Hints:
This protein is an alpha/beta fold. The chain contains 7 helices and 13 strands. The model has no long low-confidence stretch (mean pLDDT 91).
Amino acid sequence: MSMASIEGIYDSALGNMSTFDPYMNNNNGFYTSNLDRYVSVFNAANVPYFASTFFEPSESKTYTSILVRAGTSPITFEIMGTSSLLGAGAGLYRHRVSRASPGRLARAKTVLDAAPRKLGTNGMPVLEFLHKSFASSNVARDTNYWLTALSGQSVANISSGSAETFAAKLLSSDEAEVLFVQSDQKTKATMSVADFEDYQVALHMECIASETQGFDRLADSHIGHSMPGTDLTPWIEGVEAWSSAHHGRTPYRYFAKGLFYLYMPNGWGVQLSGTIPDQPSGGGYDFCNVGTTGSCSK
Length: 298
C-alpha cells in the first residue's frame, strides 16, 4: 500500500474525531496541568478532537483528555489532565481502563508542579511526555515479546473485561513508557487492527531481505531508545532467539554503526542505539539501494 492508502485507513477509523475508535490507541500521550488552555485553542481554531474521560482508582480521580490528529497523517496526540470546559467529564466517552499508568501520571503531575516554567515560548502550558501507545489486537502476545525478547520491565497491567492495557519500560531507569492497548470496541476502519499488524509484519518480512539489507515505507514507524556506550548484545541475542523460535516472524536489521532495528509482532519498530561489538559490515543509509519499492532488496 502507498502511504496515501495507509492514511486512508486512518481516515476511515478516525473520521472527524467525533467517536472513539481502537486506532486512536496509536498515539503519543502527554500530561498537562492546564488542559482547558488546549481545549480553548483547538476550539478557536476549529481543530477536531476526541474528548473522553477515565477514572484512576489509585487516586480516586477522574481525568479528561483530548485526542487530536496531526493533519492527515496517522500520528495522533492525546493530552490528559482535568478540564472544566469539557464539563469535568459529564457526557463524555468514558474509557473502561486508565489511559496511562498510575505511576506515570503521578510522576508527571509532580514534575509539572515543580517546573520553573509553566508556559512555553508560544504561551501554551508545558507538556510532560507520558508514553508511546500502540493499538493492539493481542496484549498477551505483545507483553510476552516485550518481557522475553527485549527483557523489558513491566510497569502495570490494567484490564476490565476484554479491554486491557500493558504499560512497560525498556530499562527500569526510563521515565517514558510504552503502552499496548487492546480495546473492547470494534473499529470503523477499512482494515482491522489485527489485519494492519499482519500487513506491517508481512511487509517487513518481504522487504528486509537480510540483517543489513532492505527497508520499506513503514520501517521508520518506530520508537527509539538511546543508550550511549551500552553493549546491545543482550537485546540482539534476545530478539534473534525470539525470531528463531517463531520462524523469523519478527524481522530485524542493523543500520550504520551501533544502530539495531527490531520489529515487534505488531509490526511496529524499535530502534536501539548503543555499541555492537560484533556488528556485521554494511547496512548504511543509502535508501535508493536498500529499497522502498518493487522487490525492496534493490
